[in-house]
Every structure is written in structure tokens, then in C-alpha cells.
């Protein structure tokens, strides 16, 4: 596996013509053909679907979005010269042969010139970071809160197995989960971008080219969910409604849990429970983690857990 890989925009082909029908416009060129459709999903949420004709699998098979929101209401575009315009109560999308502009809740976001491209199965969306002072999200990653100037790889792998030479430094990427959500701050307003594609993807938020936000999917179908603000709370509320809210956990799950690698015996595990009790430290659960000698079922009496 080769991580840290990006495709430079110079390697992409860019559409030159706009055609298709009002519900699925087509962006085409000498060696690229992309289809784009817009749907209203829920209040304050639009979906743009990007289909690359050269992708090996043309089916969107992600289950990241709740089943009730996977279809939505198809929007029809109106042609204004070489621009297709999707005008909806929740926002406006303007799409040209290789450029895109979105306006929602007072936030405008546009691609650079030649901002939509294809390279074989790969898709490029290259947004200008004009007026953007913050980028938040990119999944459960350690590091600074504002991700401007960072890059993130979205591919769920066992990082310890793949990154044997670097994992001890705790600087590996990608991590065990892939949550391709970016929330951009423009002035005092926010706009969420959730890129739903089970294929591997990369986001580069101005690291390679300051002022440009690259999204690259290396294959598959990309659904871009646009989540309106104007506040950060509104964006996160819409994202939670789209993907599902977690149920309330049982009370014991909210307590202290002890877990580490390499418990060597059942006796060691029981002594651990005794030490917690002796120190009067409340603990709700003890976990056998990886590299422990025995994974056989072990039941501790409730008196062993404080």
C-alpha cells in the first residue's frame, strides 16, 4: 500500500462541454465524461452526485446516510448559456463545464478554474479557499482543531500493521475510521461538505497549494452533501440528521474503562480489579486488548468492579 499519494491537478483531464438533460447534466471532454445530478435531501441539505463514466463500479453502494435520505427530490437544472443552474429553496448550484459554484445560507463556495476533473477513475473537486478562515472536521484525528494547511487520507486500515515504521510516533494517517466531513468557516458563517464515497479519498486543505481545497476520490461514485449553516450548530445538526444520531448509552458505558495491550494472564487481570478497589477508583469495565495471552471468556464478580 502507498499512502500520502495525491494526483496533481496537472494530471487531471478537464471537461470542455456541458450537455445531458436537466436532471443529470454531463460534463465531457476529449478523455473525461462526468455526470452531475442535484437532489434536495432534507431541510438545508442538497446532494450533488458525481459519476465518472470511467469508474469500474458505477453504483453508489455506501450506507453512510440513513436509508430515508438516500434518494431525495431530484432537482432540474435550467440552462443559462454554458451554465446549468439548480435553484432550490435551500440554495443555488451553478455548474459549468469544469467549474462549480454553491450558495447556501449566505455562504458562497466556488471551485477554481478547471476545478472539476477526471484522471482515469479518479475525480477531482478543487475549491478555492477564498475568505475561508477555518476548516474543521476530517474525522476522528488528533492534531490541531483548524485543519487549514493539513491533508487527510480517507481509507480505513489497521494502521499498526501498515505503518510499522511510524506508528510509535503517533503521527500516522489514515486512522481506523474515515469520516470525510469538512466544515468551512467563511466570515462568521459555516458550510458543511460531506463527501460520501466508500472508495479511498484524499482531502488536501491548502497544504500542497495554499488557497486550494482538493478533494480526490480514487474511484467510485461521490455524493457531496452540502450542509447549510449559517451557524456551526446548524451544520452539525444537519449532519447528525443525515447520518443518524447515536442512541443514549447505558450508564455503565459512561464510567471509567481500563484497557491496554498485553495482559499476560487471568491472574494479572484479577489483580488489576483488586488494585482499583483498594484505591477506591470507580471503574465500570476492564478490557482485554490485543496481544493479551488469553482471549477466553472471563467473568469478574460484580464485587470486583467498583
Structural commentary:
This protein is mostly beta strands. 33% of the residues are buried. Strand 10 and strand 11 (122-128) form a beta hairpin. The protein is built from 3 helices and 20 strands.
Number of helices: 3
Into which percentage range does the β-strand content fall?
35-45%
Q: Kindly report the name of the CATH homologous superfamily of the largest domain.
A: glycosyl hydrolase (family 31)
Q: How much helical structure, as a percent, in the residues?
A: under 10%
Q: The CATH topology of the largest domain is what?
A: Immunoglobulin-like
The counted number of beta strands is: 20
The CATH class assignment of the largest domain is Mainly Beta
What sort of overall outline do the alpha carbons produce when their principal axes are compared? elongated
Gyration radius, rounded: 23 Å
Tally of discrete structural domains: 2
The run of helices and strands is EEEEEEEEEEEEEHEEEEEHEHE
What's this, in brief?
The protein has 306 residues and is mostly beta strands.
Give keywords.
306 residues; mainly beta; nine-stranded antiparallel beta sheet; Immunoglobulin-like; 2 domains
Outline the fold blueprint:
Layout: E1 17-21, E2 24-28, E3 33-42, E4 45-52, E5 73-75, E6 78-80, E7 83-88, E8 91-95, E9 100-104, E10 107-119, E11 122-128, E12 132-137, E13 151-154, H1 159-162, E14 181-186, E15 189-196, E16 201-205, E17 212-217, E18 222-228, H2 232-243, E19 257-260, H3 266-278, E20 285-288
Parallel strand pairs: 19-20
Antiparallel strand pairs: 1-2, 2-3, 3-4, 3-5, 4-18, 6-7, 7-8, 8-9, 9-10, 10-11, 11-17, 12-14, 13-16, 14-15, 15-18, 16-17
Amino acid at each position: 500500500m502507498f499512502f500520502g499519494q495525491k494526483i496533481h491537478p496537472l494530471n487531471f483531464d478537464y471537461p470542455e462541454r456541458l450537455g445531458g438533460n436537466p436532471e443529470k447534466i454531463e460534463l465531457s471532454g476529449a478523455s473525461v465524461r462526468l455526470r452531475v445530478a442535484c437532489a434536495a435531501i432534507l431541510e438545508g441539505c442538497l446532494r450533488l452526485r458525481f459519476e465518472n463514466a470511467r469508474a469500474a463500479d458505477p453504483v453508489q453502494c455506501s450506507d453512510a446516510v440513513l436509508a430515508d435520505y438516500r434518494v431525495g427530490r431530484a432537482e432540474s437544472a435550467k440552462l443559462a448559456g454554458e451554465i446549468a443552474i439548480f435553484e432550490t429553496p435551500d440554495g443555488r448550484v451553478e455548474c459549468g463545464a469544469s467549474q462549480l459554484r454553491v450558495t447556501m445560507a449566505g455562504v458562497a463556495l466556488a471551485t477554481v478554474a478547471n476545478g472539476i476533473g477526471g484522471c482515469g477513475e479518479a475525480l477531482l473537486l478543487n475549491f478555492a479557499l477564498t475568505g475561508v478562515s477555518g476548516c474543521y472536521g476530517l474525522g476522528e484525528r488528533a492534531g490541531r482543531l483548524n485543519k487549514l494547511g493539513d491533508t487527510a487520507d480517507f481509507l480505513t486500515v489497521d494502521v499498526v500493521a501498515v505503518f510499522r515504521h511510524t506508528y510509535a510516533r503517533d503521527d500516522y494517517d489514515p486512522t481506523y475510521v474515515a469520516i470525510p466531513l469538512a466544515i468551512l468557516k467563511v466570515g462568521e458563517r459555516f458550510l458543511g461538505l460531506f463527501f460520501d464515497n466508500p472508495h479511498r479519498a484524499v482531502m488536501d486543505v491548502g497544504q500542497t497549494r495554499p488557497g486550494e481545497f482538493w478533494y480526490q476520490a480514487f474511484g467510485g461514485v461521490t455524493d457531496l452533501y452540502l450542509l447549510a449553516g449559517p451557524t456551526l450548530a446548524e451544520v452539525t445538526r444537519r449532519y447528525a440528521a443525515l447520518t443518524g444520531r447515536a442512541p443514549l448509552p447505558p450508564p455503565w458505558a459512561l464510567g471509567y474503562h481500563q484497557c491496554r495491550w498485553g495482559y499476560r494472564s487471568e491472574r494479572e487481570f484479577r489483580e488489576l480489579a483488586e488494585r482499583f478497589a483498594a484505591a477506591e477508583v470507580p471503574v465500570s469495565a476492564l478490557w482485554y486488548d490485543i496481544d493479551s495471552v488469553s482471549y477466553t471468556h472471563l467473568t469478574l464478580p460484580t464485587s470486583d468492579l467498583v
